[in-house]
Known about the structure:
Blueprint: E1 13-15, H1 18-26, E2 39-40, E3 46-47, H2 58-62, E4 70-72
Antiparallel strand pairs: 1-4, 2-3
The structure holds iron/sulfur cluster.
Amino acid sequence: xxxxxxxxxxxxxxxxxxxxxxxxxxxxxxxxxxxxxxxxxxxxxxxxxxxxxxxxxxxxxxxxxxxxxxxxxxxxxxxx
Length: 80
Ligand code: SF4
């Protein structure tokens, strides 16, 4: 892939956009580990399944310059 090609995403991925962030906040969209039954805050915020979850954590979406990052939905997410 050259730098001029648009990135491709799997069905569980997409770009983090300003519109997504605005709508996620306005609609109170729950999609992060902190809203998942498998999240273990008492274990340092790890996933019960030991999935690498840095990109699913709420803090990932609250960092500066998050727009343009890859949004990855977790297929194991189960809402609390
Ligand atoms: S199953 Fe997915 S969304 Fe749930 S805690 Fe684990 S990594 Fe996070």
